[in-house]
Amino acid sequence: MARGHSRRYPMRRGPSSPGFTLVELLFGLALVAILCGMSVPLIVRSIDRSRGLVAARYLATRLTLARMQAATWGAAVALRFELMDDGLAFSVYRDGNRNGVLSADIERGVDRQIERPLRLAQQFPRVAIGLAPGAAVPDPLRIGRTTLLTFSPLGTATSGTIYVLGADGTQWGVRVLGATGRTRVLRYVPEEDQWIPAF
After folding, report:
1. What distance in Å separates the CA atoms of residue 168 and residue 7, rounded to the nearest whole number?
2. Residue 192 half-sphere exposure, CB side, CA atoms within 13 Å?
3. Which residues of 127-153 are buried (b: 16+ CB within 10 A; e: fewer)?
4. What is the mean pLDDT of each run of 10 residues along the chain (199 residues)?
5. Distance separating alpha carbons of residues 187 and 190, to the nearest angstrom
6. Which of 199, 194, 148, 147 is nearest to 171 (CA)?
7. For 24-197, which CATH superfamily applies?
8. What are the residue boundaries of the structural domains of the chain, listed by start?
9. Run of H or E residues at 42
10. Strands 171-176 and 160-165
């Protein structure tokens, strides 16, 4: 053999060579697909439940804002609930003649609308002011015989509960305490037949 020339032999892969076979890759992909398929329904249920809670908290925050506006302006502020073609909506009114927000004054234009009607589903898909099928409560609005939930400049309010139905069927309640005007968000637990504070 001449100097400077070396013999070249084909390289052989040993048992420790890097890389995956096609079967190993397909098995790994199938395993990932199965795990993803199992977790998607859990994630969707979790999103639906949290959407209902966030909608109930949003409504509670909107009520708190009305309470603060009434105290700041020295005039009653009310949320008026109306049944529309696509569900219950609420709009906000301000007292214009110092006698509280009244339906008759709204019709005459004395108590002015300061926020247009809004349905919860506009911001929280598949969530509404409503009741789950078979609910023991007859009406999603428990604020007496009126459809107005009013906050006075003194911090008091119409007492009652507004029920919110989540996308997953979870029932939420936004309770207003009349003496203080404060709100609380509650969740109904069917297994225990009781309302518990929502955190």
Report:
1. 73
2. 6
3. bbbbbeeeeeeeebbebeebbbbbbbb
4. 56 60 78 70 62 95 96 97 91 96 96 95 93 84 92 95 93 95 94 88
5. 10
6. 194
7. minor pseudopilin epsh domain (3.55.40.10)
8. 24-197
9. helix 22-73
10. antiparallel
